[in-house]
Design a protein that fits this description.
2 domains, Arc Repressor Mutant, subunit A
């Protein structure tokens, strides 16, 4: 049985001297993971995480989905995502952890729009360009005597982030090709990620976007195949599952955290969406 905590653990930036930026290359084998308690335990980060895998394989679990990452892949995890390392085999790669305030606002906005993201396998020549960018950033991270040390490091890391974001955008719709429905759906999803704990009515999201509820529903259903209420439900259910699985909050405390004043209503809401009670979900996943 996995040890539970009252709250989902949050991993903080470990190198405060870099003012919110940590970049490095590292190698691990299957024995090293047993000593990486923080990485093996489900957690959130208080920073944006970028990983470039050069050799070996890594199994990672992100919000109840398990992925096997192979060379030459990149992986981005957003601060709100719960994740853990499941296994590693002769891994060699690069890691960038960076706080939101150090990310170029344009890149930060794009990452917010396209998250959550799956691991992305790249062509080797493209991956090589990213590796060169990593090497430059690491070199600059070691030149603390430079008068513009932090600015140089931040700018070089943002070049890397821009290159990574560009690769993810390659597999998404180009911004200038989005239909009106897709543009409105993206705006809705950004608002949902930001406000799902406090806003649960489609009407409120429509008002925030200055459109009618029926038009918002029409656009979201055209773009995704599901109405606005479905997306609100799924976002709340994901957070409920995170808290039930990764923390030791009681079901009532989970309901309170998600803004449900009526515990009985939350219980019915969860059971209808998941097909089992919240307590049954927790007990099933504690085995």
């Amino acid at each position: 049985m996995r040890k539970k905590e009252k709250f989902i653990p949050i991993k903080t930036m470990t190198d405060a001297s870099n003012s919110g930026i940590v970049i490095a290359k590292a190698s691990f084998d299957e024995h090293d993971i047993m000593s990486l308690d923080d990485a093996r335990r489900s957690h959130r980060d208080d920073y944006h995480s970028f990983f470039l895998l050069e050799k070996g394989t890594t199994d990672i679990e992100i919000d109840f989905q398990q992925y096997t990452i192979t060379p030459f892949s990149i992986l981005y995890t957003h601060p709100h995502q719960v994740h853990r390392i499941v296994a590693m085999e002769s891994v060699s790669g690069s890691f960038l952890g960076i706080s939101s305030e150090n990310i170029n606002p344009v890149y930060l906005h794009l990452l917010e729009e396209i998250a959550p993201l799956k691991p992305l396998l790249l062509e080797r020549d493209v991956f090589s360009i990213l590796s060169d960018s990593v090497s430059l950033s690491i070199t600059l991270s070691q030149r603390r005597h430079e008068r513009l040390y932090h600015t140089l490091l931040k700018d070089s890391c943002n070049t890397l982030i821009g290159l990574i974001t560009s690769q993810y955008l390659e597999v998404a719709h180009a911004a200038d090709k989005l239909s009106r429905s897709e543009v409105i759906t993206k705006s809705f999803k950004l608002a949902l990620q930001r406000d799902f704990l406090t806003i649960k009515r489609p009407t409120a999201y429509a008002e925030a976007l200055n459109i009618t509820t029926s038009y918002l529903n029409e656009c979201v259903k055209e773009a995704t195949g599901h109405p606005v209420s479905y997306h609100i439900q799924q976002r709340l259910i994901l957070e409920a599952k995170r808290l039930l699985y990764h923390s030791d909050k009681s079901v009532k405390e989970v309901a309170d955290t998600l803004g449900f004043e009526d515990y009985a209503y939350f219980s019915r809401f969860f059971s209808k969406a998941v097909g089992m009670s919240a307590l049954a979900f927790r007990n099933k996943n504690r085995v």
